[in-house]
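Hi R.,

Here are the chain sequences for the assembly we discussed:
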Amino acid sequence: MTTGRLLTPAVILTLAFTFGACAKSKPPVARPVDTNSGPIPPPPGLPPKPPEPVPEPVGVPPEPRMEDPLKVSDIDKINQNSPFQPVFFRYDSAEIEGEGQAVLDANAAILKKYPEWVITIEGHSDERGTAEYNLALGNRRAAAARTYLISLGIPADRLRTVSYGKEFPFDPTHTEAAWSKNRRAHFVLTSK
Amino acid sequence: MKLLTTLLIASAVLVLAAQNPPPVPPTAQQPSEIGLVISARDDGSPPKLAVPEFIPLGKEPEVVAAAKSIADVLWDDLAFEKEFYLLPRDILRTVPRPASVEQVSMDRWKELGAEGLVVGTVRKTADGIVVEARLMRVMNGAMTLGKQYSGSPKSLADGGRVFAHGIADEIHKQQRNLRGVARTKLAFSSDRDGARMKGPVGDRDVSNIYMSDYDGANQSRLTVNRSIDIAPAWSPDGELLAYTSYRTGYPDVILQSLRSMRPPTYPARGSVENQNFLPAWSPDGKMLAFTSNRDGNAEIYVVNRDGSNLRRVTSHPMADVTPTWSPTGTQLAFTSDRGGTPQVYVINLDGTGLLRISGEKCDRATWSPAPLNEIAYAAQAGGGYEIRIFSFATRESRSVTDGIGSNESPAFAPNGRHLAFTSDRTGRPQIYTIARDGTDLRQITKTGSNKYPNWSQ
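And here is the predicted structure of the full complex:
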């Protein structure tokens, strides 16, 4: 259950790049063929057809992109396939442990690569505490993640926090597995 | 004094209330003389009251319907406080309805053992509706209370509930010296409209503030907002609702007028760095206590309702949240996890006199109105929470809820005799009311998820 969160920043960035590239490559776009290939003659015996769109040549690799997709994508797209991983917490705790530190290290690397990004760290809790106290607990989780990122050199003014308590469970079922997923700090790109 | 010894004979005091009652309930004026009190019986059991259908003075369908529904609602309103033994409805129906007040006969009611009888009429006039109610002593036919209310034609749209509520509160006040809650309302947050907002992971439920009559009737939406609005709190004068909204992207305390279209105000002056939530009104309605992270972690603050004179009450590196005011306005109770688990503490407004009152993990203290001097809160029990009440007199707490589901967010009725709370006993969280002795559980909401109830004064 934890391996997914132990991805190195490089892997995360590679994945993000791949997703971005895939998103860019579909739907297929008609492209001009090489100037020396000429128009395709209609097969003999068939009535002449109106000109068709020229199909994309097969085997030609997509143009190498010069821009980073995370730089050109809009904020919603990035958040849908977020390069940031959430940090999970133990029951009734806002302490960032080894696993969470690794995730935050990776998230910090992304923030250093994109120095204009401002993120909101959302603090969430499972459903077992009261609604009111969980607002405070969520606050504390978000603040703990923020403090750690600041200690890694991320400027404080790029790190907002907000607590949603138990208003927005990631998994609304009432199981231990769901609760462990719901006790989290979630990273949302707010402006870039 | 225990029996019907008062010799005052009340003259028919028929007071004309203001026109157009809704949304402001018609308030009958004080009678010029206090009438007879129908007392508890010799054995201490509550007096028996008959509340038959009102008499329609006219054949208009809405008048005929209101004559029945007003009596129905009045019966429920009176039953809610358990101050009278109400003759059951099927027995009431065995007594023929007279065609006019003059034809009312006490004989049958005497046979049925009733001590008091409510005789009501409904009629239509050129400019509206007139409802009249009299409380009669069955023994001798004397009137102990007489009230007349008038309202716009629209006041019968919901069956004339507002008339019934006004009559019920008058009867409780005059007969039992009790502040009834028939005209009070509940506010709460709900996602029932099904609106969604775009979230970073997927769509998220929007929650808005809703309100209803104390008994769940007339549920209506107050805020229309693609965000989350939670934890409403009625101002003591009923003019304003304070609540927590995320509409600005961070939680902040909002004051919204219920009677005018004035734009909402932000007395805690929130920002991305200064986030504020869970407002609670001081008993005089001049101040708000709330939780804020503006000094780094969650602390309790107090501010005037116009945003002036902000001051910090608590100061501790652990979280201090969820304030509630003492009825005197000189103390706050709040939740702190400074002792390791969240517990309820009491503190003077100036930050002195800290005292822990709970012995268990708990939250959402809500101080009773005077003179009860109790604090209700949600205490952890089993896999969920129970509503418990701590009494300053006995220094002990007792459970109000019954161990079914998880029960949270208690809010006292203004007379302290009832509580509203949230429970997931039937699945999604819903609002319930319960008597402070744990009886008379009633489900108020059924659609969507409904949380954070608050009871108007």
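Residues 1-30, 32-38 of chain A have pLDDT under 50 and may be disordered. The CA atoms of residues 42 and 49 of chain A lie 8 Å apart.

Let me know if anything looks off.

Best,
T.
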